[in-house]
Amino acid sequence: MNIVRLNISIKSNCEVIWGVLTNEKLFAECFTKLSIKCDNWAIDSIIEFYVDNNKNCDKALIKTFETNKCLSYEYYKHNSLNPILVSFKLSNKNNIVNVNLEGSNFINKREYKHTIIAWKTMLNSLKKYTEEINNKKSDDKLAQF
Q1: What backbone torsions phi and psi does residue 124 show, to the nearest 5 degrees?
Q2: Would you tell me which CATH number, out of the four given (3.40.50.1260, 2.60.40.10, 3.30.530.20, 3.40.50.150), belongs to the domain 4-143?
Q3: Which helix (H) or strand (E) holds 129?
Q4: Which Gene3D superfamilies match (predicted)?
């Protein structure tokens, strides 16, 4: 019960999805009520997460950073000392990216259940946003002819 494993297939490429996960502007466009700030995307750097422009922020400590492949971090909710261990793994086959999202170390059943619902919504938003980007790129290429 203490591990959440979700996955989604997206018609895109790893670079586009990685960009949404690690670029402040793209992240905010994709996840309209969330924003991030990170001065240095590297192991042991801090990511700040803001909800609805709230001054309180959740923080994460980056543990793995493999561009276009894997991002993992210890996620600390505001006023919590218990980290949720989060990892995104991307793999691409025939222009379909498989996004695996895993989390563990939830403090209780309520947090576990809330995370499942929130992450399913987040993955669906990621799919919709990145597939729209890919469709726009395809339309732009067709417009060149």
Answers
A1: -65, -40
A2: 3.30.530.20
A3: helix 109-143
A4: 3.30.530.20
Give the count of beta carbons closer than 10 Å to the beta carbon of residue 4: 19
Domain boundaries along the sequence of the chain: 4-143
Q: Per-residue DSSP letters for 3-61?
A: EEEEEEEEES-HHHHHHHHH-HHHHHHHSTTEEEE-S--STT-EEEEEETT-S-EEEEE
List 99's β-bridge partners, or say none: 8, 90
**Quick check: 129 and 30 in contact, CB under 8 A?**
yes
- pTM for this one? 0.89
Distance of alpha carbon 109 from alpha carbon 125, whole angstroms: 25
Phi, psi dihedrals of residue 107, rounded to the nearest 5°: -75, -30
